């Protein structure tokens, strides 16, 4: 069954599986202990941290392993806001941030802070000048994702970072969709990512806080991970994350042109074979493996169910609220069709034959659902 939902979770990479199984034998002990098995676990944890840091081009002591990408986001945003309360209580976010960022912003507002939401254009991209104009003397933190998780549009992180630097405001970048796939421009102060997005184990996130960035944990004190993340570090998962990131990044760099061609085939063929379809997202400044489109007169959930019956696993609507059946906040912010939405995100190993078969069955599936709904 072709799996076309890599933006949600990339299948576990064989290199990660091998590292995980090996580390269960040697890295199970508490790395804070001084006896032999504890020292071995600490060496493995340090090795994993150094390897991931090298892949991200950061210092090992700037990187912490978290229990999820969401936890990394919450720690980054709330920790930066906590540390910079004297500077102000104003937060800047884009309208298309992941729900984890927006939920942190909602909590900040409930606790007396203020939030400015920067809009996006029809392609889901923030205007760098509008983002810069949202910064104020009392801005404590600005947040801009590296690339959108629903439509694949790449955001102007470099320009936003320059504006933040000039204003003396730290920039947080949610890089979950980019890490392991495309480089993230430099200049940011805090970054979060999630291992399962690049073929690592679920339940492992990455939090990077650059040297010189003010940050204070929003949680009770804990001695683990430099005081940033509470609880026992998952050493096997950290090693598997390092292995997955190294392997996936190398493979994706080589395979990205082929995946981009497959996505372009979908973007070109669909309007030729299906009426009333809108291809969503920036056609050029986008992730190479992801494409989103919306159909009039079709319920997204019904379409996903039917495609699953036919052997294709794709996602619909908001990737973070699909289970609630609420319209996607990303698509609403873009001002595009919010129903009948399908996101295809190709994993490693996706074939031309699978994509061609998908393009063959999709038009008749849409027609069948429209007929059953009585609209044609």
From TrEMBL:
- Keyword Metal-binding present in the record's keywords: the answer is yes
Q: Which UniProt keywords apply?
A: Iron, Iron-sulfur, Metal-binding, Pyridoxal phosphate, Transferase
- Give the residue spans that cross the bilayer: none
- Database matches in Pfam families: Aminotran_5
Q: Which cofactor(s) does the record list?
A: pyridoxal 5'-phosphate
Q: Where is the Aminotransferase class V domain?
A: 3-358
Does this entry carry the keyword Disulfide bond? Answer: no
Which InterPro entries does the record cross-reference, listed alphabetically? Aminotrans_V_dom (IPR000192), Cysteine_dSase (IPR016454), PyrdxlP-dep_Trfase (IPR015424), PyrdxlP-dep_Trfase_major (IPR015421), PyrdxlP-dep_Trfase_small (IPR015422)
Q: Which reaction does it catalyse?
A: (sulfur carrier)-H + L-cysteine = (sulfur carrier)-SH + L-alanine
Query: Which family does the entry's similarity section mention?
Result: Belongs to the class-V pyridoxal-phosphate-dependent aminotransferase family. NifS/IscS subfamily.
Database matches in PANTHER family: CYSTEINE DESULFURASE, CYSTEINE DESULFURYLASE FAMILY MEMBER
Q: What is this protein called?
A: Cysteine desulfurase/sulfurtransferase TusA family protein
The species is Actinocorallia aurantiaca
Source organism phylogeny: Bacteria, Bacillati, Actinomycetota, Actinomycetes, Streptosporangiales
């Amino acid at each position: 069954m072709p799996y076309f939902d890599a933006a949600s979770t990339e299948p576990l990479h064989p290199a990660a599986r091998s590292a995980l199984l090996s580390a269960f034998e040697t890295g199970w002990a508490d790395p804070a202990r001084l006896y032999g098995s504890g020292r071995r676990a600490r060496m493995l944890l340090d090795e994993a941290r150094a390897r991931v840091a090298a892949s991200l081009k950061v210092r090992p002591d700037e990187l912490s392993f978290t229990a999820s990408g969401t936890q990394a986001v919450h720690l980054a945003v709330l920790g930066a806001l906590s540390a910079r309360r004297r500077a102000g209580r104003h937060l800047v976010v884009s309208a298309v941030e992941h729900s984890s960022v927006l939920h942190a912003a909602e909590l900040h507002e409930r606790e007396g802070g203020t939030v400015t939401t920067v809009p996006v254009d029809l392609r889901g991209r923030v205007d760098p000048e509008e983002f810069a104009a949202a910064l104020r003397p009392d801005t404590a933190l600005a947040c801009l994702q590296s690339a959108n998780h629903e439509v694949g549009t790449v955001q102007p992180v470099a320009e936003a970072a320059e504006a933040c630097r000039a204003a003396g405001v730290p920039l947080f970048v949610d890089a979950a969709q980019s890490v392991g796939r495309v480089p993230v421009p430099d200049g940011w102060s805090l970054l979060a990512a999630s291992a399962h997005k690049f073929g690592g184990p679920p339940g492992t996130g990455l939090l990077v806080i650059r040297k010189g960035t003010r940050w204070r944990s929003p949680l009770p004190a804990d001695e683990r991970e430099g005081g940033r993340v509470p609880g026992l570090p998952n050493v096997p998962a950290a090693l598997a994350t390092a292995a997955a990131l190294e392997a996936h990044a190398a493979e994706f760099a080589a395979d990205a042109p082929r995946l981009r061609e497959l996505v372009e085939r979908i973007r070109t063929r669909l309007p030729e074979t299906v009426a009333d379809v809108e291809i969503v997202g920036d056609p050029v400044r986008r992730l190479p493996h992801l494409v989103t489109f919306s159909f009039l007169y079709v319920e997204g959930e019904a379409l996903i169910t039917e495609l699953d019956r036919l052997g294709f696993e794709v996602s619909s609507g908001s990737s973070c609220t699909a289970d609630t059946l609420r319209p996607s906040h990303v698509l609403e912010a873009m001002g595009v069709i919010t129903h009948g939405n399908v996101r295809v995100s190709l994993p490693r190993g996706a074939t031309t034959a699978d994509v061609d078969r998908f393009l063959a069955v999709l038009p008749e599936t849409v027609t069948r659902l429209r007929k059953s709904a009585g609209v044609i």
